[in-house]
């Protein structure tokens, strides 16, 4: 499989995800690295950016890294206007975002694939339900039901679930409209339909998950990497019998239907080198140490083949 991401041709084939036996490059300290980086973009990647930053600063204590996690939609304008060094995103770029950047700079932005994630459907652990069909997900969250559901689902009893004696209706939680998770879930789970007005929009995936854990009858969608002990992720499928649990293997094989990729957007002029600090931070993210932090934060690392191609781009 080939994918053209903002002018960078990446040969993904079947090896998007890192396997345990793959040898990723180790990070070697580079002399003379100093300065500051400003990151504007995805909340999904906020904690991972913090982990990368903390580890990177053990190599370069004087480096400053500021992280503004206000949603994926804030990354492209920040990179376009030059108010950010890097732009983490939990979705790909829209054509309008590429066009705006190109009008300003005369070339397209570059997108680096830095981790793999899945959008999970979470319920609290007291809920006996373990799986939903794609049509049921749409019937719960969507006002338009473009995925084929005939009726909205408002109560757990409609799903034949005896949840705490049947006294609780379904309370929905999700992300706000500047979030890449919001836009991608709308595309993947609602068939480009509209969310119901009763979905409680939260500023971050952590807020969604914490709300579900503390609310009887709650369900919500969020980045799987933000999972906590008080919630569980549901299996999802075309039918309940074929529902796929969210596991490392189902994400690697892309059998889980809401698998997605996480990116960092950068401004790199063709034929020109990146500033030293920016290049080294990205090189660290794409190293064995950086990808170990991806696993530690609950996401899935990128394959060595993709990393090798991306290192050639930034170096």
Automatic annotation (TrEMBL):
Known function: Involved in the system for phosphate transport across the cytoplasmic membrane.
Domain PBP residue range list: 33-289
Subcellular localization(s) per the UniProt record: Periplasm; Secreted
InterPro entries with a match to the protein in the record: PBP_domain (IPR024370), Phos-bd (IPR011862), Phosphate_ABC_transporter (IPR050811)
Keyword Nucleus annotated: no
Alphabetic keyword roster: Periplasm, Phosphate transport, Secreted, Signal, Transport
Signal peptide: 1-18
Upper classification of the organism: Bacteria, Pseudomonadati, Pseudomonadota, Gammaproteobacteria, Alteromonadales
Family membership: Belongs to the PstS family.
Protein name from the UniProt record: Phosphate-binding protein
One Pfam match: PBP_like_2
NCBIfam families, A to Z: ptsS_2
Source organism of the structure: Alteromonas arenosi
């Amino acid at each position: 499989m080939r994918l053209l991401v903002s002018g960078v041709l990446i040969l993904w084939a079947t090896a998007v995800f890192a396997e345990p036996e793959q040898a990723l490059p180790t990070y070697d300290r580079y002399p003379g690295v100093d300065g500051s980086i400003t990151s504007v973009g995805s909340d999904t990647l906020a904690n991972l950016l913090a982990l990368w930053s903390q580890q990177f600063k053990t190599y370069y204590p004087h480096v400053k890294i500021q992280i503004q996690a206000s949603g994926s939609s804030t990354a492209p304008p920040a990179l376009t206007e030059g108010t950010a060094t890097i732009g983490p995103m939990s979705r790909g770029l829209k054509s309008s975002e590429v066009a705006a950047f190109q009008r300003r700079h005369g070339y397209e932005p570059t997108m680096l694939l830095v981790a793999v994630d899945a959008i999970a459907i979470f319920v609290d652990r007291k809920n006996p339900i373990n799986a939903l069909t794609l049509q049921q997900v749409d019937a719960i969250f969507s006002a338009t039901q473009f995925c084929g559901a005939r009726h909205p689902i408002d109560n757990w009893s409609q799903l034949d679930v005896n949840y705490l004696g049947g006294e609780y209706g379904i309370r929905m939680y999700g992300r706000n409209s500047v979030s890449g998770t919001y836009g991608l879930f709308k595309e993947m789970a609602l068939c480009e339909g509209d969310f119901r007005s009763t979905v409680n929009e939260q500023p971050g995936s952590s807020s969604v998950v914490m709300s579900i854990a503390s609310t009887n009858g709650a369900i919500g969608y969020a980045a799987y990497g933000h999972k906590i002990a008080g919630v569980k992720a549901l299996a999802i499928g075309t039918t309940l019998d074929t529902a796929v649990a969210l596991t490392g293997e189902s994400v690697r094989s892309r059998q889980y239907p809401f698998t997605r990729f996480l990116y960092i957007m950068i401004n790199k002029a063709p034929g020109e080198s990146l500033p030293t600090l920016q290049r080294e931070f990205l090189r660290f993210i794409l190293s064995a140490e950086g990808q170990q932090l991806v696993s530690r934060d609950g996401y899935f690392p990128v394959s060595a083949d993709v990393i090798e191609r991306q290192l050639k781009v930034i170096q």
